[in-house]
Design goal:
globular, mainly alpha, 16 helices
C-alpha cells in the first residue's frame, strides 16, 4: 500500500530533516573538541605521547569520516533525486572541458576535506552523471589545497611560495583530469556507484515525492556505508598507527639537497603518512629549516595529502585496480616532476 502524502506529513518530514541537519552540523563541529576534552581533561592523557596520540587520532578521524560519509552521501543523494543524470551531462556538454575541470579544481580547493573525506563526494558526483575526469580532478584538488592550509603556508613559507604551491596543486589536478578525459575509464569504476536506490528512483520516470526522495537517499546511504565501513576502520587505523612517527631527522639526512633522489624519496615517504594539508605544514616547516630543498618539501607535502595509504584502501572499494593504479601513478609522477622543477629553477 502506498503512503498518502499530505502537507502536514511533508511539513513534519521537512522539520525532521532540518533538525537532523542541525544535529549533524553540531556533531561535526564538536567532534575534535569532544575527543580532546575526553583525552586531556577527563582521562588526563598527553596527546604528544605516541600511544595516546594515535588512539585519539583514530577515534577523532573515524568519527569525522563517518559523519562526512553519512551526511554527504545522504545530502547528495537527496539532491540527485531532483537531478537527472542526462540533464547533468547536457549541462556540462554545453561547456568547454577545461571550464568544467577548472570548476572542479576550484571547488576542491575551497572544500576543507582530507583525501579520505573527499571520497563520499566523489561517489555522489560520479553517480550523478558528472564525467569521471571532472570528479577525479576534484578528488585530487580537494586534499591538496584548502583555505586553512593556505593561511598556514603563507605564514610559514611566505606568500610567494604559497601562491606557487596553490598554483601547482590546481595545475596538477586540472592536467591529470584532462589526461583522464582522453581515456574511456567509466567501466573501471565499481558497479555499485551507478546502481544505487537513487538511480533506481530516477529511472521510474515519475516525479518523486519528498518521502520517496528521503527513503531513496536513506537506502543509498545505508548501502554505501555498509560496503565501505570496514575499510574506513582499516584505513584510519593504518593512519593512526603511523601518526606521530614522522622521522624528520631521517628525511633531513637522506632527502637533503645533495641527494639527487631526494624528491622521489620524499614523495614516497609521504604516501604512508595520513594528514591533511594543514596538519602537515608544521612537519614541512621542520624539514625546510633542517635544510631540505623547497621542491622536495612540496613533494613531501603533496605526497602526504594527495596519496595517503588510507585513501588507497578506501578507493580500492570504488575504483577497479587498473584505474586505481593509473590514478596513483599519474599523481605520484606529477608530484615528483613538480618537486624536481622547483629545485631546478628555485
Amino acid at each position: 500500500m502506498s503512503t498518502v502524502t499530505t502537507p502536514r506529513s511533508t511539513g513534519r518530514l521537512t522539520a525532521a530533516l532540518a533538525a537532523a541537519a542541525v544535529i549533524w552540523g553540531a556533531l561535526y563541529a564538536l567532534n575534535e573538541v569532544l575527543w580532546d576534552a575526553l583525552f586531556t581533561r577527563l582521562l588526563g592523557l598527553d596527546l604528544t605521547q605516541r600511544v595516546a596520540g594515535s588512539i585519539h587520532f583514530f577515534l577523532y578521524d573515524t568519527s569525522k569520516i563517518f559523519l562526512l560519509l553519512v551526511g554527504m552521501i545522504f545530502a547528495i543523494g537527496l539532491v540527485r533525486t531532483t537531478l537527472r543524470p542526462e540533464k547533468v551531462r547536457e549541462f556540462l556538454a554545453g561547456r568547454p572541458l577545461w571550464g568544467s575541470l577548472v570548476m572542479a579544481a576550484v571547488f576542491g580547493a575551497i572544500t576543507p576535506f582530507c583525501s579520505c573525506s573527499s571520497i563520499p563526494l566523489f561517489i555522489g558526483f560520479v553517480g550523478a552523471g558528472i564525467p569521471l575526469s571532472v570528479t577525479l580532478t576534484f578528488l585530487i584538488a580537494s586534499p591538496l589545497v584548502n583555505e586553512v592550509a593556505v593561511v598556514l603556508l603563507a605564514d610559514t613559507f611566505g606568500v610567494a611560495n604559497t601562491v606557487l604551491y596553490v598554483a601547482l596543486g590546481l595545475t596538477v589536478s586540472i592536467a591529470i583530469g584532462f589526461m583522464f578525459s582522453r581515456m574511456n575509464l567509466d567501466h573501471l569504476v565499481a558497479d555499485f556507484v551507478f546502481k544505487t536506490p537513487v538511480a533506481s528512483l530516477q529511472a521510474d520516470g515519475h516525479r518523486p515525492t519528498l518521502h520517496e526522495r528521503v527513503e531513496a537517499a536513506r537506502e543509498e546511504t545505508h548501502d554505501i556505508v555498509g560496503r565501505v565501513w570496514p575499510w574506513i576502520l582499516v584505513g584510519v587505523g593504518v593512519g593512526a598507527f603511523i601518526h606521530g612517527w614522522v622521522p624528520t631527522d631521517f628525511f633531513a639526512q637522506y632527502a637533503g639537497p645533495d641527494n639527487p633522489f631526494a624528491v622521489p624519496l620524499a614523495t614516497a615517504a609521504g604516501i604512508p603518512l595520513y594528514a591533511n594539508a594543514a596538519s602537515v605544514v608544521p612537519i614541512a616547516e621542520a624539514l625546510w629549516t633542517k635544510g631540505m630543498a623547497l621542491g622536495t618539501v612540496m613533494s613531501f607535502m603533496m605526497g602526504t595529502v594527495a596519496l595517503s595509504l588510507p585513501e588507497f584502501i578506501l578507493l580500492k572499494q570504488v575504483l577497479k585496480p587498473r584505474l586505481l593504479a593509473l590514478y596513483f601513478g599519474s599523481v605520484g609522477v606529477a608530484i615528483m616532476l613538480i618537486g624536481l622543477l622547483i629545485n631546478l629553477f628555485a
